[in-house]
Amino acid sequence: MTLTPEQQAEIEAQRARTQPTFRATAPGIEAHLYRAQPVLDHGFVRVVDYMGDDAAIVQAARVSYGAGTKHVSNDEGLIRYLMRHWHSTPFEMCEIKLHVKLPVFVARQWIRHRTANVNEYSARYSILDREFYVPAPDALAAQSTVNNQGRGEVLQGEEAERVLRWLRDDAMQAYDHYEEMLSQEGQQGLARELARMNLPASVYTQWYWKTDLHNLFHFLRLRADAHAQYEIRVYADAIAAMVRDWVPAAYAAFEDYRMGGATLSSRALDCIRRMLAGEEVTQENSGMSKGEWREFEAVLHP
């Protein structure tokens, strides 16, 4: 991870500055405020601001004032009820703003989650840093033979070295040309907004990303999943650790019902009832397609 001296000084200044407040604070996320959590080779995630905590979810659900119930177990039970029955609005009362540094190709996956407020570093006004994502050797995998979206075996030996060399050399050459195209002494140069188009998708960008807890949970359910692409999953894992400290009761319910739970169709439930009754159920007599049956078996036998 690379933080500029200016960014590091800003972080230290923000952490040194404290002031009294009447707003609710969450000690778990306060510990993360402004600190940059390293991700990949040059990336990071850091919490810039937040609003709300577990109590804010409970308060919104009861539409009450003050702290609400004094029984923590009752609050946790209510949060679990809300999660279990897909009552999403109370979770929207909590918000978080993150500063993220990430490769452009990861950002293009990430931005598909359109339920956030985003402000990205502008390469029209500023010059991008010479920083590119180069996978670690154990993340350098071939195309999966069974999944068009997934990875197969890790590349080995000379082939791995050849691919890594191309990734580094191509990125460096593209940046060299990017620099040469920009305005320099005695040269008019190309506009920054045009010169950037030659850079590879592995170049790093930065943005501020603000979202509410309901939509953040949806992001984490998809991107912290084992099937998600590794490069976005490690960001989701880092964020998940922060959310666990921020709203422990809500995160525990999310982990139980969303990450660890499963949604079954009426046809799948019927198959389970038949199995419990002692009937032998197969894909052929289940009424499911081969793909549905494969996913159903994965739920029964993870």
From TrEMBL:
EC number: 2.1.1.148
Source organism superkingdom: Bacteria
Coiled coil: none
Binding site for dUMP: 109-112, 120-124, 196, 223
Reactions listed under catalytic activity: dUMP + (6R)-5,10-methylene-5,6,7,8-tetrahydrofolate + NADPH + H(+) = dTMP + (6S)-5,6,7,8-tetrahydrofolate + NADP(+)
GO biological process: dTMP biosynthetic process; dTTP biosynthetic process; methylation
Keyword Endoplasmic reticulum: no
Binding site for FAD: 89, 112-114, 120, 212-214, 218
GO molecular function terms noted in the UniProt entry: flavin adenine dinucleotide binding; NADPH binding; thymidylate synthase (FAD) activity; thymidylate synthase activity
Keyword terms, alphabetized: FAD, Flavoprotein, Methyltransferase, NADP, Nucleotide biosynthesis, Transferase
Pathway: Pyrimidine metabolism; dTTP biosynthesis
Catalytic residues (positions): 223 (involved in ionization of n3 of dump, leading to its activation)
Free-text comment on the cofactor: Binds 4 FAD per tetramer. Each FAD binding site is formed by three monomers.
Gene3D superfamilies: 3.30.1360.170
Cofactor: FAD
Function (record text): Catalyzes the reductive methylation of 2'-deoxyuridine-5'-monophosphate (dUMP) to 2'-deoxythymidine-5'-monophosphate (dTMP) while utilizing 5,10-methylenetetrahydrofolate (mTHF) as the methyl donor, and NADPH and FADH(2) as the reductant.
Family the UniProt entry places it in: Belongs to the thymidylate synthase ThyX family.
Assembly behavior: Homotetramer.
The name this protein goes by in its record: Flavin-dependent thymidylate synthase
Gene transcribed to yield this protein: thyX
